[in-house]
Design a protein that fits this description.
Layout lengths: L5 H8 L11 H8 L3 H7 L1 H23 L1
Amino acid sequence: MTDDHYGPLVQAMQTNQSLRSPSIGHIERQCAMMTAEDRQQTYPNYLALMDRVAFNREQWEKQNDKN
């Protein structure tokens, strides 16, 4: 998959809060070798997806702490 494929997934994640821990190994390995600026230019949608996943995980943890 290319970064363009993650755009629709980011949009879907705005209303879906169930995805909390994906792992996309090849992109994670590439990002580990890039500067923050290069990551943002190369994988903006992937980074937005990971931000949303982190948000979902935080919300899920807060909800579970209340219960």
